[in-house]
Amino acid sequence: MPFSIAMKELLRTTDPTIIPFATALLEAEGIEAFALDVHMSALAIVPQRLVVSDQNLFLARAILRDNGVPLHE
Hints:
The structure is a single chain. With 73 residues, this protein is an alpha+beta fold. The protein has a single domain (7-66), classed as Alpha-Beta Plaits, CATH 3.30.70. Helix content is 29%, strand content 23%. It has a three-stranded antiparallel beta sheet with strand order 1-3-2, with helices on one face. The longest helix is centred in the first third of the chain and has 11 residues, at 18-28. It is globular.
């Protein structure tokens, strides 16, 4: 899926373990996710963000909530 499709922010965190965990959960369900600001988060003041396509946002939120991942609302 091209990145040019409307993307929505799913979560934002400074915890370096959340993004890989959330990405793995989504990929297991066939939802492509993109991590943003990964290298900037080394500064510890810039959070990483995870985005998904607009059409997958509802399902992605449900998957992460069901697995206890804190979401950006």
